Amino acid sequence: MSDLARNLRWSWHAATRDLFESVDPERWAAAGRDPVRLLGSVPPARLAELAEDRSFLDRLDAVVADLDAYMTGDRWYQAQTDRLPEAIAYFSPEFGITAALPQYSGGLGILAGDHLKAASDLGVPLIGVGLLYRHGYFRQSLSRDGWQQEHYPVLDPHELPLVQLEEPGGTPAQVPLALPGGRLLHARIWVAQVGRVPLLLLDSDVEENDLGERQVTDRLYGGGSEHRLLQEMLLGIGGVRAVRTYCRLTGHPEPEVFHTNEGHAGFLGLERIAELRAQGLDFDSALEAVRAGTVFTTHTPVPAGIDRFARELVARHFGPGAELPLMEVDRILRLGMETYPGGEPNLFNMAVMGLRLAQRANGVSLLHGQVSREMFAGLWPGFDPEEVPITSVTNGVHAATWMAPEVFRLGARQIGPERAEEALSLGDSDRWDSVADIPDQDIWDLRRNLRELLVMEVRERLRASWRQRGAHSAELGWIDRVLDPDVLTIGFARRVPSYKRLTLMLRDKDRLMDLLLHPERPVQIVVAGKAHPADDSGKRLIQELVRFADDPRVRHRIVFLPDYGMAMAQKLYPGCDIWLNNPLRPLEACGTSGMKAALNGCLNLSVLDGWWDEWYQPDFGWAIPTADGAGTDPDRRDDIESAALYDLLEQRITPRFYERGESGLPDRWIEMVRRTLSLLGPKVLAGRMVREYVERLYAPAARAHRAMDPDSARELAEWKARVRSAWHGVTVDHVETSATPPTAELGSTLALRVRVGLGALGPDDVEVQAVAGRVDEEDRIADGTSVPLKPAGAPDQDGRWVYEGPLTLDRTGPFGYTVRILPSHPLLASGAELGLLAVPAEDVTDGGGLLMR
């Protein structure tokens, strides 16, 4: 039983949870459905009784055998024919695995937890790396007047589903971090077993540390700049050391790929450079070797969301007398300084360092990839944003965690439990056709049942909240009438920064009140969310919402539930009919809460941002129109978008929910639920997301890592230095085509001839390209495609080279071309990698231009 409790697979494996619940249902509920706490509270007499219960022992044997098969059997990853990475280290500042291990604050952590779970289901050999925060993130309650209050419970690792990593003699394994002044920060390593994936959590609260050092891992996203810097140094540098220690002690393969989930862990690249320098590589060669096997994921759509530190603070913590003493401090600083147009050159930017230390980078939705390319374009000067080498992998959610058991059972009834589990974990289907065979009545009964379960949950939590606010039980009889299982239910739950606009629904309170109290088509709203402890503006938004929800006229129709977390979310998503999301576009990187709702047949009502911008269809829900023009006043924008929200609810959503067809059921609503499950469900799975990471990022990074042996790393570093120093001599001197624009026709092919100067470089160092495509109103090429040109013989007596190639006019409308030169080397992941580009000067004859209107 203890072994089952220490593997967090129980958090998404229903049979294991059912087994623990059967030990003592009341204690299971009192323990917050945490097996470790349950086993610590069960009397020995009850355990002795279970040891004699043959039925219980048979169930226990079956669950243990199932876990053993899960842990040791081949899965999707082992069935791939390509040589995939032996191991991948995945670093994140927070992980949302289960409410029993509260080491998360919001979407970033939940995504990281789902990434680990999906990797486990797929058999991906991941090692997770994070910090163990002794206070976790804060617990939230409300004052009588609705102001957020924070509480920081102390977490004892020995009471959590963790095991301490130990050296062979039984002493705790530790990693050191050097601090200024010759001091050392020690951190022990705790292991949370997430299915097949070990999650290493570093803990600085150890006896060897002074009080200040012990508090480095006290709170998630707490403290000032130096505190945050130390946390991020421990996560990145200490995290690499923890991985090395774990692999040494357990025999786990060393990672070939290091994945940095957001910039907080970016210092991991410095530690890996230091490792290679200790083996004899110079800094530049080590940098190339590290970059080859590093993947960086950005989740931030605005510069203000990135951790930035003063140059002097970073400099003080590195070099002689501090961490990485053999590393030149100026080289470290150059990796993170904002030395590009529009940057602040005295600030050290963690995301910038992450990008400079990674050969592959991605955003977390198609739109966010575009936003990221524009935001970081200064790192690749001369390239259009669409060519900045940041791709995108749209986030997904772990179905076994977020899909209600009732929804799973309905699907499993159609195709069987094993096939259903496989479909949910692999994420390799475009559609779930079996949903079409589920009768309308069954879908509608399921939705009402889930709504009723939510109503019961809300009343229980609301009663507890009001008691915390100082109310007596005698005052709370009205709570028994809060919400109605037959009323259209809207959910809104997330962090509460201003851009997510918690109170947009309150823009016209009278109109909202009319919606809540409509005599024939009422709506009810469940709201939850936490503001950062230092964000008073976010707390004021919560207070405004709470005060509205406290009004006796509407408090049975709208509620605010404090202390939003995983346990609440798992009840909230399935029980809602509509999931509302109204951020300022395009500030939502992905926004996975709506995905979790969709997995349960809840329809989305959202601004076209994040994942919804990518996958929205009228079959799945509704898009809130946006007023995001450059000159729109923020207040005016909120007025327009809130009015659009009210219009959708009044004119389209509530009529569809309440209208009944010939069967007596809301046929059109049920069809939208069916399409959400069958067409959107397969897209939003974390299994699909992790497979994309493996195929598009991890596998190429592993190949690049293997190719970057010490000699190759030195050669590439020397080549880059030579190209950078000689690039001033690279020119496009003359461009001509075999036809003039009046004779150009669709489908014709022109011969392109280009004269270039390469200076000290040769044809093997560059690629000369023709770039052609549609021309916009300002005569700029949009949506262009590049065609490599080939050298036509040796250089002329002036040392100039002639390049030739065909140019096909393959599109109607305005069509143009230009020519450019990029560095080229087999070990580059992208032609833009060096940020170097040569294009025709303005006075070059026929340097490019319009070929066809």
From TrEMBL:
CDD domains: GT35_Glycogen_Phosphorylase-like. Residues 2-101 form the DUF3417 domain. It is an enzyme of class 2 (transferase). Keywords: Allosteric enzyme, Carbohydrate metabolism, Glycosyltransferase, Pyridoxal phosphate, Transferase. Its cofactor is pyridoxal 5'-phosphate. It catalyses: [(1->4)-alpha-D-glucosyl](n) + phosphate = [(1->4)-alpha-D-glucosyl](n-1) + alpha-D-glucose 1-phosphate. InterPro entries: Agluc_phsphrylas, Glyco_trans_35, Glycogen/Maltodextrin_Phosph, Glycogen_phosphorylase_DUF3417, Pyridoxal_P_attach_site. Belongs to the glycogen phosphorylase family. It comes from the Bacteria. It holds the Pfam family DUF3417. This is glycogen phosphorylase. It comes from Streptomyces thermocarboxydovorans. Its EC number is 2.4.1.1. Phosphorylase is an important allosteric enzyme in carbohydrate metabolism. Enzymes from different sources differ in their regulatory mechanisms and in their natural substrates. However, all known phosphorylases share catalytic and structural properties.
